[in-house]
Design brief:
This protein has eight helices and 17 strands. By secondary structure, the protein is of the alpha+beta class. Strands 10-9-8-7-6-5-17-16-15-14-13-12-11 form a 13-stranded antiparallel beta sheet, sandwiched between helices. The termini are far apart. The N terminus is likely disordered.
Length: 451
């Protein structure tokens, strides 16, 4: 298996060196899907020393106790022991397998941040029809507009055998997250001194890209419809955001609107994109650790590495956890979090020449099994690590999918962190509801919801 990994890395290096970075994969490469590679392109085999097991299909059956009134998905591996804990005292022996933001947090907050490492469980799985479409589309999908758009693919991972950084980023942007997703999004901004801001509100997301029967959306290139309306705190009640994304975001930029209940007006909001500030320590393209158009950056594919990343985190996504105790000053209660050793694609994003973005450089760590960015390092214009992020997705094996759920954004300068999409005290996310009508994702509907 180790030799296969070396061969794969060599083939990748050759393709980059010869300049064939925008070419579709060959029939021979596509035939590797479902054989030595998983149906979405990960290495099926384990690693040489056995610390990463082989992928055997992931979790595809509903978890015990599902469904429940609160949509509380149990921890599928509650009996797993902690193998070891990475702390400030021992971090040097694991440094080559840690994102830079993890190292920074271990140094800055040795009493609040630690990483409990559990046995690696390759639970990632997608619906069978998604696997079929991925193989069908693999030889046709290609990048357009200098890597900033995609064509000839729908309802599938576009680049299961990536040749460059844009391929990997588009796999993250277009990965399967369920056709429809709804949940009550809790948000907490917590500073080390104990100051806290909180928001709540229903969140509805439709992914037409994952619906092969949506011919109209495909013709228009609509891949995402997003709506969020604040219900708390009282001062923000009724505020709303609506966004619609396209598979070719340069030619068809994001359409966005915001509703202000004080003015009782819906406004077009073309600035709800890129590095426009969102919450005090995040910008709009921080959501989902990266979203929207990739046009601001050059993406360099560093390669594949074994890293300790969040995985199988139903515990922190439970609606029955105590909100104040879970999201404590410093960082999330570490005993609610689970980290595992997995292979990730490392992509470095540098701001393009002549272009501006608040983050001059970002480094993304993308899980090979589910194509989700699981951690991110974010640098300021002086080259200093400024912010970072972790993703703790829900394992929703009834679909099956691992996605959404808690993500955190950390600011090393203001000594605060922001948690978004948690379910504490409400209900867990659902991924199999009937799609809302297109009319739900309109400016007039946003205004009605905000009254």
């Amino acid at each position: 298996m180790f030799k296969q990994s070396i061969l794969y890395t060599a083939m990748l290096a050759f393709s980059l060196a010869t300049g064939s970075v925008f070419a579709a994969i060959t029939a021979e490469e596509a035939n590797r899907l479902g054989n030595e590679l998983t149906p979405v392109g990960a290495e099926k085999g384990g690693n040489a020393d056995g610390t990463i097991p082989a992928w055997t299909g992931g979790l595809t059956d509903p978890l015990p106790g599902w469904p429940s009134a609160s949509n509380d998905r149990p921890n599928p591996y509650a009996d797993d022991p902690i193998q070891f804990t990475i702390t400030a005292a021992n971090m040097d022996q694991y440094a080559d397998k840690l994102p830079e933001i993890a190292k920074a947090m271990l140094k800055a907050k040795p009493d609040q941040f630690k990483m409990n490492v559990y046995p690696t469980r390759r639970t990632a799985a997608f619906p069978e029809e998604y696997y079929s479409r991925t193989k069908e589309n693999a030889q046709k999908a290609k990048l357009i507009n200098d890597g900033n758009g995609v064509e000839n693919v729908w309802g599938a991972i576009p680049f299961p055998i990536p040749k460059n950084g844009n391929d990997v980023i588009w796999n993250h942007l277009l990965r399967y997250k369920g056709v429809t997703v709804e949940g009550f999004s809790g948000e907490d901004l917590v500073y080390d001194n104990g100051n806290r801001l909180q928001w709540n509100g229903p969140n509805e997301i439709h992914h037409p890209f994952q619906d092969p029967g949506d011919d109209k959306a495909r013709a228009e290139g609509t891949i995402l419809r997003f709506s969020l309306t604040a219900s708390e705190p009282t001062r923000d009640k009724g505020e709303g955001t609506l966004a619609i994304d396209n598979i070719d975001p340069v030619s068809t930029p994001r359409k966005a609107w915001s509703y202000d209940p004080g003015e009782r007006r819906v406004r077009r909001a073309p600035t709800l994109n890129f590095d426009t500030p969102d919450r005090p320590i995040t910008v709009f393209d921080d959501w989902d650790l990266f979203n929207g158009s990739p046009e601001k950056y050059d993406f360099k594919l560093i390669g594949k590495r074994e890293m300790y990343i969040p995985y199988n985190n139903n515990k922190i996504n439970s609606p029955v956890i105590d909100r104040e105790a879970a999201f404590a000053p410093g960082y999330i209660d570490p005993d609610l979090l689970r980290y595992e050793l997995h292979r990730v694609w490392v992509v470095e994003a540098s701001v393009r020449e002549g272009v501006r973005h608040l983050y001059a450089k970002r480094r993304f760590y993308v899980d090979e099994d589910n194509w989700t960015i699981m951690a991110a390092d974010k640098y300021d214009g002086a080259g200093n690590l400024w912010r970072g992020a972790f993703y703790y997705p829900v394992v929703a094996s009834e679909i099956p999918v691992s996605t959404y759920g808690v993500s955190t954004h950390i600011d090393l300068k203001t000594n605060g962190y922001y948690v978004v999409n948690h379910s504490a005290g409400t209900k867990g996310w659902v991924f199999n509801v009937e799609p809302r009508p297109v009319s739900y994702f309109t400016a007039s509907a946003l205004r009605r919801r905000g009254r």
